[in-house]
Write a sequence for this structure.
């Protein structure tokens, strides 16, 4: 990277190019071009921060150049110069993503100021991104892997809500990462010096749960030989995570409501001293709490207290683009844990992972990769090394006769589809799940590959973009992500 910011000036008139070069050469690395071809080769070769292009480039159109520049993986800021300062052209350029426009004849002071301001904005944006990455790395968002839009939405919400003291309700199917998200919220919050305390609400009878949450005094019940501090007291100043909150008995729901109200009050079981706890509450459920409220099984006032901010973890089948990244992470983890050199996934194994419906979500994927790492005898995890459910799904999905070599004769649209899927799986397997590298291999953009991965097999079911497209095939839960 050059230490100076870079600017590319495109104009078919030599005196404009020269004038702008002189204007910028003290503060920027300046590149110039008279046409789109020359400009594109600079854009492909150099990391250009700013593109300043004339609208009329001989017979060519500067708008075309802006369109192409904005499609690059790290697009420059684009500014249009036009002698035809009509509002229409300016509006059109901005609509297509240009930052601003200037009219000719150029007022150089104005141009200089505009460019400096745009550069400043870009620098701030880059600094922000770098800072955010540092924060993520330090506080555990980097443990939540994935690059889908749905996951990014979740991460953004986590970043946003974490510093507040708002209670958070995390819903989502089993294995989607609810506990991981709860941890991240705590780690990113101002309470991260105090404890994060987890209570598995489903595992305990109402009596035991009450004493677990609030503690008990000596002799409160048979077997209570000592005074015991409850989870709320332990979590004081920190965060309490109530897992499977829907399972809490109504008798305990009342007591929870009290500790969550303004008084924050509770008593230990068998005690009459009223205690107070400063605790942030995060609750998780794979049930539809609203439905339970409607059926009178969950208190509505408690629901409102819990549901200040709601985060919905999307099921894995609706974000298949995350699979390669997750696979890569789990491969590294389990190879290391098993003292094995890093193994790869064979293309047909990757294909099976992409085709599968994942009722158990990320947890099931994690287990599948662990299974594969343990079972693999060679340098590659093959279909045979994967758990039976995946193997069965893979054989059920593949129509007979389509093989990995079937690139030549594609006779029906289905073949074409299958062939594409195979190619994608192969590229991902060859790059160890690295989407960027796989996209390069396939000669398509990263974004396109993301989309294609996500669309795989979804097209065969009814297509509900972000809803529970085929939730009937999943087990033991009653809702998707909306
Ligand atoms: N995005 C992710 N990146 C990395 N690991 C993940 C991700 N999502 C989930 N996992 C892993 O998958 C497993 C299940 O996640 P977690 O326990 O957070 O799910 P959950 O939603 O709480 O499940 P349950 O409802 O069954 O309690 C864990 O091992 C977790 O580390
Ligand atoms: Mg959990």
């Amino acid at each position: 990277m050059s230490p100076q910011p870079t600017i590319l000036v495109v104009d078919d008139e030599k005196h404009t190019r020269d004038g702008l070069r002189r204007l910028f050469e003290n503060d920027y690395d300046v590149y110039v071009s008279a046409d789109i071809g020359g400009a594109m080769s600079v854009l492909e070769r150099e990391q250009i921060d700013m593109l300043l292009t004339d609208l009329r480039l001989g017979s060519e159109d500067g708008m075309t150049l802006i369109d192409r520049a904005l499609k690059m993986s790290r697009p420059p800021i684009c500014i249009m110069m036009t002698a035809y300062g009509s509002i229409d052209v300016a509006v059109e350029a901005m609509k297509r993503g240009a930052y601003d426009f200037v009219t000719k004849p150029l007022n150089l002071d104005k141009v200089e100021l505009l460019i400096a301001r745009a550069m400043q904005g870009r620098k701030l944006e880059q600094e922000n991104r770098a800072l955010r990455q540092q924060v993520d790395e330090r506080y555990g968002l980097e443990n939540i892997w994935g690059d889908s839009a749905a996951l990014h939405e979740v991460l953004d919400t986590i970043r946003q809500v974490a510093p507040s003291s708002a209670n958070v309700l995390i819903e989502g199917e089993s294995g989607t990462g609810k506990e991981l998200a709860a941890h991240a919220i705590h780690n990113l919050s101002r309470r991260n010096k105090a404890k994060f305390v987890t209570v598995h609400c489903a595992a305990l009878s109402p009596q035991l749960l009450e004493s677990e949450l609030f503690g008990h005094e000596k002799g409160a019940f048979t077997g209570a030989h000592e005074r015991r501090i409850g989870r709320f007291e332990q979590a004081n100043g920190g965060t309490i995570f109530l897992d499977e909150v829907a399972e809490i008995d109504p008798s305990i729901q009342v007591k929870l409501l009290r500790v969550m109200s303004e008084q924050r009050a509770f008593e230990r079981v068998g005690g009459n001293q009223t205690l107070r706890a400063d605790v942030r509450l995060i609750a998780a459920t794979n049930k539809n709490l609203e439905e339970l409220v409607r059926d009178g099984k969950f208190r509505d006032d408690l629901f409102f207290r819990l549901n200040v901010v709601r985060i919905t973890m999307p099921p894995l089948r609706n974000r298949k683009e995350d699979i390669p990244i997750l696979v890569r992470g789990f491969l590294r983890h389990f190879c290391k844990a098993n003292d094995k050199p890093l193994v790869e996934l064979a293309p047909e194994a990757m294909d099976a992972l992409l085709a599968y419906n994942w009722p158990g979500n990320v947890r099931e994927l994690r287990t599948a990769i662990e299974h594969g790492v343990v079972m693999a005898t060679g340098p590659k995890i093959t279909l045979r090394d994967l758990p039976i459910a995946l193997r069965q799904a893979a054989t059920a999905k593949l129509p007979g006769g389509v093989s990995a070599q079937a690139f030549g004769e594609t006779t029906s649209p289905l073949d074409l589809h299958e062939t594409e899927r195979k190619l994608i799986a192969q590229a991902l397997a060859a790059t160890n799940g690295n989407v960027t590298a796989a996209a390069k291999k396939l000669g398509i953009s990263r974004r396109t590959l993301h989309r294609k991965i996500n669309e795989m097999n979804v097209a065969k079911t009814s297509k509900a973009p972000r809803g529970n497209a085929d939730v009937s095939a999943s087990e033991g839960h009653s809702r998707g992500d909306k």
